[in-house]
Write a structure and sequence with these properties.
By secondary structure, the chain is α+β, with helices and mostly antiparallel strands. It folds into two domains: about 200 residues, Enolpyruvate transferase domain (UDP-n-acetylglucosamine1-carboxyvinyl-transferase, Chain, Alpha-beta prism); about 210 residues, UDP-n-acetylglucosamine1-carboxyvinyl-transferase, Chain. The strands form seven sheets. The protein has a four-stranded mixed sheet. The chain has a four-stranded mixed sheet with strand order 2-17-19-18. Strands 4-5-3-16 form a four-stranded mixed sheet. Helix 4 runs parallel beside helix 6, helix 6 packs parallel to helix 7 and helix 8 packs parallel to helix 12. The chain is globular and about 65 Å long.
C-alpha cells in the first residue's frame, strides 16, 4: 500500500494548475447515458473516481477513449445493461448518479447501494423521492435499488433534506427530468457550481433547463439529447486546498484556472484568518501574513463554507494564535482527522458536531493514517509545516480527488514523495 513521506518546513512558492472538478465531471460522465451522439469532455481530471465511473459506464454500454490531449470521447453503443453492480458502486458513491439517466433513457435501473468516504450517514432517500415524483417505481432488493418507469412525467417537487439540499440528488433528478414529459420544477435544489456545470452540459446537448445555480430549477422535457463538446469547470475544492497550503507555509501561490466566485465563503474566512487572496489574470493569487487569526467556521451547503474544506481549514487553524470553533452542519460525523492531527501536536477537542481548536506554536511530524479523501488532504497540509518527517498511510484516499498532488506540491517547493510498499 502506498503512503506519503513529507519533511515539513518548506515555504511554497510558484504556480499550480488547478484540475477539472471531480464533482462536476462525475455526473456529467453519467449524463452521457442520455445522449444519442458522441460527447467530448475537456478538463476531466485523471483520478481514481473518474476511472471508476468510466469503468462503470463501459459496463453500461458507453464506449470511451481518452485522447492524447486529455479530452475524453464517449458514445453509447449498447443500451441492454441497466445494472450498476456492487463491485463497482461500492468503490465510489457518485456511481449512484447513473440511476436518473438509466431510468429516463432505458426505463429501468438497478443500482447497488453506494459506497465512498467514511464521513457519516449519507442516505439516497432524496434521489428516490425525486425519481418517484417523476413516476418511477422503486424497491430495494438484494442490496440494489430497482427503478422502473414506462414514462416519466414532469411535476413540482421539494428536495430539501435534514442537512440541506442534496447535490447528487439534484443532479439525478435533473438528469431524469430532461427526458420527462412536460415541466419539472425542483424547489430547494442544490446551488453548487457543479450542478450548474451539469445543467450547462445538458443544455448544450439540447435540454431546456433554467434556474440552475438557484434553489428553484425548471426543466422542460425534450424527446432526445444529442452530443456536445464541453469543458468541465475548475475544481474549487482543490483550489481551496492549495490556497490553504500557501497560507499554512507562509507561501505565495498562483492558482491557475481557479474561479474566485466559486469560493466566496471560503475566501472570506481565509481573509479573516490573515490570508491575502486576489483575483489574477490567470486565476487566484494567494499569500499569507505570518500571524494567523482564530475564526469560527460553520459548514453549510453552497454558497456557504464547503464541508469539503472543513478538514483542511482545521489543519490551518491548528496554528492560529488563539481558539477557533469549527461546526459541521453538512456531515456532523466528518471528524476522523481530529485524532490524527492531535498525534502531530494539535490541540483539538470535539464536542458533538463542533471542534474546538486551541492554536499551537508548531506541529511535529508523525506517522498518521488517512481515513477519507479530505482528511488525507488535511494531513498532507499539516505535514507541510510539521517539524521533522511525517508518514501518511493510505495514499489511495487522496487519489480519489486530487490529481498528482505530490507532483504539484513538489513543483512549488514541498518536500513530499510517494512511497510504495
Amino acid at each position: 500500500m502506498e503512503h506519503f513521506e513529507l519533511n515539513g518546513g518548506n515555504r511554497l512558492k510558484g504556480a499550480v494548475q488547478i484540475s477539472g472538478a471531480k464533482n462536476a465531471a462525475l455526473p456529467i460522465l453519467a449524463a452521457c447515458i442520455l445522449c444519442e451522439d458522441e460527447v467530448t469532455l475537456h478538463n476531466v481530471p485523471d483520478l481514481a473516481d473518474i476511472r471508476s465511473m468510466i469503468n462503470l459506464l463501459n459496463r453500461l454500454g458507453v464506449k470511451s477513449q481518452r485522447r492524447d490531449d486529455g479530452a475524453i470521447q464517449l458514445r453509447v453503443v449498447d443500451e441492454m445493461n441497466c445494472h450498476a453492480e456492487y463491485e463497482l458502486v461500492s468503490k465510489m458513491r457518485a456511481s449512484v448518479c447513473v440511476m436518473g439517466p438509466l431510468v429516463a433513457k432505458r426505463k429501468r435501473a438497478q443500482v447497488a447501494m453506494p459506497g465512498g468516504c467514511a464521513i457519516g450517514f449519507r442516505p439516497v432517500n432524496l434521489h428516490l423521492q425525486g425519481l418517484e415524483a417523476l413516476g418511477a417505481e422503486s424497491e430495494l432488493t438484494g442490496g440494489d435499488m430497482m427503478l422502473r418507469a414506462k414514462k416519466l412525467k414532469g411535476t413540482e417537487m421539494f428536495l430539501g433534506g435534514a442537512f440541506g439540499s442534496s447535490v447528487t440528488g439534484t443532479a439525478n433528478v435533473v438528469m431524469a427530468a430532461v427526458l420527462a414529459e412536460g415541466r419539472t420544477v425542483i424547489e430547494s435544489a442544490a446551488c453548487e457550481p457543479e450542478v450548474t456545470d451539469l445543467a450547462d452540459f445538458l443544455n448544450a446537448c439540447g435540454a431546456r433547463i433554467t434556474g440552475h445555480g438557484t434553489p428553484r430549477i425548471t426543466i422542460d422535457g425534450v424527446a432526445a439529447l444529442k452530443g456536445c463538446e464541453h469543458h468541465v469547470i475548475a475544481d474549487r475544492i482543490e483550489a481551496g486546498t492549495f490556497a490553504i497550503a500557501a497560507a499554512i507555509t507562509n507561501g505565495e501561490l498562483e492558482l491557475r484556472g481557479a474561479r474566485i466566485e466559486h469560493l466566496i465563503a471560503a475566501i472570506d474566512c481565509l481573509r479573516r484568518v490573515g490570508v491575502i487572496i486576489e483575483r489574477g489574470e490567470k486565476g487566484i493569487s494567494v499569500s499569507s501574513t505570518r500571524r494567523l487569526e482564530p475564526v469560527s467556521i460553520t459548514t453549510q451547503p453552497y454558497p456557504g463554507f464547503p464541508t469539503d474544506l472543513q478538514a483542511q481549514a482545521t489543519a490551518l487553524l491548528c496554528l492560529a494564535d488563539g481558539n477557533s470553533i469549527i461546526t459541521e452542519k453538512v456531515f456532523p460525523d466528518r471528524f476522523l482527522h481530529i485524532a490524527e492531527l492531535n498525534r502531530m501536536g494539535a490541540q483539538l477537542r470535539r464536542e458533538g458536531g463542533t471542534v474546538i481548536v486551541h492554536g499551537v506554536k508548531k506541529l511535529v511530524g508523525a506517522p498518521v493514517m488517512a481515513s477519507d479523501l479530505r482528511a488525507s488532504a488535511a494531513l498532507i497540509l499539516a505535514g507541510l509545516i510539521a517539524k521533522g518527517q511525517s508518514r501518511i498511510s493510505r495514499a489511495y484516499h487522496i487519489d480519489r480527488g486530487y490529481e498528482r498532488i505530490e507532483d504539484k506540491l513538489s513543483a512549488v517547493g514541498a518536500d513530499i514523495r510517494r512511497v510504495g510498499e
